[in-house]
Each structure stands twice: as C-alpha cells, then as structure tokens.
Amino acid sequence: MKLDWKPVKTKDTPLPDPSHPEWERALINRLVLEYLADQRRRQRWSLILKLGVLLYLIGLLIVASLPAVTDLTKINEEHTALIEVNGILAPEADASAERIIAALRAAFENKHVKGIILAINSPGGSPVQAGMIYDEIKRLKEKYQKDKGRDLPVYAVAIDLCASGGYYVAAAADAIYVNPASLVGSIGVRLSSFGFQKAMEELGIERRLLTAGTNKGILDPFSPLPEPQRAFLQRVLERLHQQFIAAVKAGRGERLKGGDELFSGLFWSGDQAVELGLADGLGSASQVAREQIGAEKIVEYSKKRDLLDALTRRFGAMMTLGFIEALGLGGEGLARY
C-alpha cells in the first residue's frame, strides 16, 4: 500500500487523515516529539536560572571581599576611634591580638583621634592574646605621652560580656564603662579535659600510647591522670592566675573594692561591677565619646576580615579541628582566661 503521508519527524509534519491505518502511530510520534521538545525547553531555562544564581552569588562574594572604602588617613576632623573586641580571643579570630593591635596602632598614629574606645563583647580566650593586647595598649600610651607630650585616653565599654580575657584587655584602659546588665569579671583560669579510662576498661578497649618523656602524655583523655601531674597542672594555672590578678591590679589600682573574691572567677552585673570597682560607671560607646572624650563623631578602626578570607579560614579551621579530634588531640586541654 502506498503511503500518502510522511513519517512524523517534527511537530510541524502534518498528521495523516484519522481514517488512515497509520494515524495512531503518527499521533503517538507527534506526542513524543512535543514532550521531548518541552523537556529541552525546561532544561534550557533551568540551566539559565542556575547560571544566573551562580553569577549573582559570585558577584556578592566579590563585592563583600572588597576592602573597606574608608581611608582612615584622610579623615581630617577630630573623632573618636572605635575598636571592637568581639568574640573569643584567639589567633585566627576576629578578636585576635594581631587585628586588635593593628587597629590600636592606626588609631594612635592618627593625629585627629581624640580618644579610643574598646567596645568589648568577649567571654575571654587565650591568655597570650589577652596579654599581648594589654601590653600593647600600655606601650602605645607610654609612647604617645613621650612623643606628643600629652595623653591619649583609652576607654573600655562593655557590651553584653566583658569577662575573663575580655576583662584582662579592659583592665589596660583608663576607665571602664558598662551597661547595668553587662556581665563583668570572671577573673580566673580554666583548663578542662575528659577522662574515658573507666569507660574503655568496661568496653575492653586497650589504650596504646607511646611517648618519649615521662609526662608527654599528660591530659591524654584515655589515660589516668596521676596526682603528681594534677598538682603540676594546678601550679601552672595558679601562675597564670597570678599574672591575671597582677594585670588587673596594675590597671585598676585603688579603685578595686571587692577583696579577694574579685579574683575567684565570679562575675557580676554591670551595676555591681561599678560598686566593686571593676568598672567606673554606666555608659555606652556614644556616651563615652560625647561626654568623656569630647568627640561625638565615631570612626570604626576595627580590622575585619573580608568574606572570602573568613570563609577560607573557617573551612580550614573546621578541617583542622576535625583532624585533631580524629586523633584524640582536642583543644580542651588548653588553659583559657
């Protein structure tokens, strides 16, 4: 039989007459072609949408990674320099000594700065980081006095939390101002770890730890902690504690009124801290700038990481932490203010 229609190859190919014996096959052919064409359209639009979202995110990342546009050297009017001490004091954190000290130096070098405010919202952290910031504040103030013949005041303003290492930093300031509800103090040192020895014995797990050095395995969570090692660790903590106390006494002097309880690790509300001499008064950063420094204009000097650097460092830190924990070398055994 001679066909009077052509096989359906495109949706534009005409269908045969419904009375034709091949009409049903041609109709199915047409439906399949239209379905495939619709799927291709959907895939194209999906690809375009995904590409658009990707380009948008890349654009946001590039914009966020650009350095701050404020050039501190071009500010030619008197102002108050604001430096944030936000979060845990640690080498790779936003509140690292490196970043805080860089901001402090920039503020002390700007001749238009009338005073500096440390806006502290920190639970503490590394004793080394806290000590470095404290020492640098003292050094910069002494150098400024020697070079300029006058003092550049440094004030600490507690936000939510000014505790432990955060208070260590604040103690270097000329005066400390708090909110009535701020938590202030916690002058002490802590070192924490875990002991899994008995759990391992019950599970029948044998710990195989090889060391060169009698005390090299100290604070290993899967080994017992002998009394001589415990006593040694306590002496280390006491020494760090005395360093902390000495710094606070040097910074606060005769203003302290609470006796030895101030150095017990307790913390107090902001209004209590004022009564105990841990703080000098109630006030916010804007109040201190206006009433104490006399320069209401506030310029932020904090050295912040750009988004790309922050994401890269955070990913690296997560990978490192996971590796350390996998080896059973977690950072719980580090002394912290």
From TrEMBL:
Q: Which SUPFAM superfamilies match?
A: ClpP/crotonase
Record field: transmembrane: 47-69
GO annotation, biological process: proteolysis
Origin: domain of life: Bacteria
Ordered alphabetically, the record's keywords are:
Hydrolase, Membrane, Protease, Serine protease, Transmembrane, Transmembrane helix
Peptidase S49 domain residues: 150-291
Q: Which GO terms describe its molecular function?
A: ATP-dependent peptidase activity; serine-type endopeptidase activity
The record, for Pfam families, names: CLP_protease, Peptidase_S49
Provide the family line.
Belongs to the peptidase S49 family. Belongs to the peptidase S14 family.
Which organism encodes this protein?
Caldichromatium japonicum
Record InterPro entries: ClpP (IPR001907), ClpP/crotonase-like_dom_sf (IPR029045), ClpP/TepA (IPR023562), Peptidase_S49 (IPR002142), S49_SppA_C (IPR047272)
Q: Write the protein's name.
A: S49 family peptidase
